[in-house]
Amino acid sequence: MARVVEVPDYPVASHVAIDPARTALIVVDMQNDFVEPQGALFVPDAPATVPRIQQLLALARAHGLFTVFTQDTHYPGDPEFPIWGEHCLAGTWGWQIVDALAPQSTELVLPKRRYDAFYGTPLDHELRLRGITHLVICGTVASICVHYTAASAALRWYQVIIPVDATSALHPFDLEAANRQTAFLFRGILTTVDAITVEPAAAAAAATQPAEGAR
Ligand code: ZN
Q: Domain 15-209 falls in which CATH fold?
């Protein structure tokens, strides 16, 4: 029998200013298998997030944010297949990022093998090379690859920012649990796409070095 639990309240910020020099946009697994109805692991709420992610990409491109597209990537016999069925097989249509969010040549497409985009990939290296300290993370699935990437980022002390209307999950419980964990456990900032502005000066002030005595 299903149990009923109350979702603890968590804050959703009405305004978040980001510094383009220190912030990267991470678009997680917006691939045909997850986003298109004929995909192998279709997430019914994912198509509605495409326009929201297009808005984030437009903002990132206008201000020169470093942008990463993660790409779930598997090969025949992958141990994830008994869990999820065959999906995102390298080189197939389902593996490709949806046309509506096509990466540009200056943006990094990052193949990954597990939910966490840091695991077994050069993502941390690529971010640190560029002095990135803040990550805006969107895409799908909110409680799986988005969440484990956000958690992994937070464990490395990146400041995580998740526009909740640019993520999608398979079940509302999973979505709420992921959001609650991000806000409560990882002190990530939950917000919406419209609430994000790029303000170099304001964000630079917010990201100042630790006070004296911290060293
Ligand atoms: Zn997978």
A: Rossmann fold (3.40.50)
43-48 — which CB contacts under 8 Å span 24+ positions? 43/140, 43/141, 43/168, 43/169, 43/170, 45/168, 45/169, 46/140, 46/168, 48/168
Q: How far is the CA of 79 from the centre of ligand 1 (A)?
A: 9
Q: For 18-58, how does the pLDDT look when each residue is reduced to its tens digit (9 = 90+)?
A: 999 999 999 999 999 999 999 999 999 999 999 999 999 99
CA of 72 to the centre of ligand 1 (A): 5
Q: What is the pTM of this model?
A: 0.92
Domain positions in the chain are 15-209
- Of 26, 197, 56, 211, whose CA–CA distance to 116 is shortest? 26
